[in-house]
Automatic annotation (TrEMBL):
Belongs to the class-I pyridoxal-phosphate-dependent aminotransferase family. This is Aspartate aminotransferase. CDD domains: AAT_like (cd00609). Keywords: Aminotransferase, Pyridoxal phosphate, Transferase. The keyword Transferase applies. Its EC number is 2.6.1.1. NCBIfam families: PRK09257.1. The keyword Transferase applies. It catalyses: L-aspartate + 2-oxoglutarate = oxaloacetate + L-glutamate. GO terms for molecular function: transaminase activity.
Amino acid sequence: MASPKPSAFAASVVPKAPEDPLFGLMAAYRADPFDKKVDLGIGAYRDDHAKPWVLPVVKKADEILRQDPDLNHEYLPIAGLANFTSASQKLILGADSPVIAEKRVTSLQTISGTGAVHLGALFLSKFYNTKGDKEVYFSNPTWANHQQIFSNVHLPFKTYPYFSTQTRGLDFDGMIAAIKAAPEGSIILLHACAHNPTGVDPTQEQWKAIAEVIRARNHFPFFDTAYQGFASGDLNRDAWAIRYFASQGFEMVVAQSYAKNFGLYGERAGCFHFITSPGSDAVDTVSRVDSQLKILQRSEISNPPAYGARIVALVLNDAALFAEWEENLRTMSGRIIEMRKALRSKLEAAGTPGSWNHITDQIGMFSFTGLSEKQVLAIREHAHVYMTKNGRISMAGLNTNNVAYVAQAIDKVVKEVQ
């Protein structure tokens, strides 16, 4: 036997990648034997008993599917389940949207929101602004995976100011100034609602100003929406920014996830939408873009998975199930809002230094507490409360059984660790 050759993938070529911080945090939590430990890092809804919650409407849809004698496991088309993608358009744009009526949108089913962001990034990398430099601008901070997704398709990124450490709210002036200063035609990634990780959203008037600057600079909007209906409990309110941009005639893309608002985390149901501006060539543009998106999809996943999309399509296309889903959304968003109120009230009652109104001012699953990395590590060590190093907590990890304990732990660390 010949002597073995050294690997073509030596450490100098393939260095060991760092562990994903969030999944590392989850592993540390699972390994902790402490009986009062609290997981505030998880980006998934938990009920008041800290258990995963299968939405009642999803259980009903699941049973309907199970009883369907025609159910099979054949491939879906490359673009996905047609009654899923069409219903997704109506959900995010509005059933009476001129974009849909004028056939200025094409939609493909994706591997949840992550797959939708990736498909959009890949498409823009290949086809947008092919004669010049192109950069994507993310909010600072943003969902960590945005950076990896766009880097993997060789799109360089920069950031615009977003979170104010002083007010623990939106740095609106900094955001506007940075978007104005970005090279003309830049890609601007925007969180439609329940900004991840800060929980801070622009007001409707601020969204109008953001749209005005993006139009003036000829930028390209890229919306990521993972929390429609989950943020406020109101599907229309949470879609307002996207619908406003669409009403202003922007050409843009939208990445849509059903992980949070349907609780279908593991089923990976998502949708990607390309929307073009009004014009005589709009239908032709959509047709050409659709053809290229299908080639990209075919080369990566061939056909999207069926089960999660079938669940969503059943609910979105049935009036009674849709109404029940809206009630389920109000249950989830309502519980999180109550936990925000409870945490703030307990911190204020304890006289915890600082102001805590940002806990209730922010919206959605996450909140930026304002805790420093040093305080985060201390609260993990002494109280076994787990959160990301930047002080982001998942409000879904709080419940009536642990919110007082968490408030006491935060109070102690803020008073003792500077």
